Amino acid sequence: MLKKFKPDMICKSVLDINLETLAKRGIRYLIIDIDNTLVAWREFEVKDEIINWLEKIQKMGFKICLVSNNQKYRVEKIENMLGIPAIYNAKKPLKSGFLKASQLLHQGKKNHQTAVIGDQFFTDVIGAKRLNLFVVLVRPLKEKEFFVTRINRIFEKKILKYYEKDEKE
Ligand SMILES: [Mg+2]
């Protein structure tokens, strides 16, 4: 059962994602999580290196939509700051937020060319895999997190250990 939800790539940060590998796999559309993937939880400042990375990937031809479980106020502020469309209150790991994003990116017709990038197994990875999307799991930017997330991290650690072991066998 767990194998179904195995991330396709695990990276330290979005900055470490091998974009050529994604492009070679035919990925053209990226659905990216906000909190602790692009911006530290509860902070509004987007680091220059992240802004530059977002510009670079768009120049490379990737189309982006941000998808967040956070509320309208925070998500719209970041959406306006970055000038990249964003879905708020996405209710990940439910499918609805991802479906809205894929509708916005390609009318829902190119899921096979779409990758999800996020920092949480229980929201980003499970949600993406329920739609059979390619998924890149990144390490969270900061340890400070919502208390539910902190509990989830305990289980997440165990699951990632399992995948590591699986990879070695
Ligand atoms: Mg996150």
TrEMBL record:
SUPFAM superfamilies for the chain: HAD-like
One Pfam family cited in the UniProt record for this chain: Hydrolase
Annotated TM spans: none
Annotated InterPro entries: HAD-like_sf, HAD-SF_hydro_IIIA, HAD_sf, PGPP1/Gep4
GO MF term set: phosphatidylglycerophosphatase activity
Record protein name field: HAD superfamily (Subfamily IIIA) phosphatase, TIGR01668
Native organism: Caldicellulosiruptor owensensis (strain ATCC 700167 / DSM 13100 / OL)
Lineage: Bacteria, Bacillati, Bacillota, Bacillota incertae sedis, Caldicellulosiruptorales
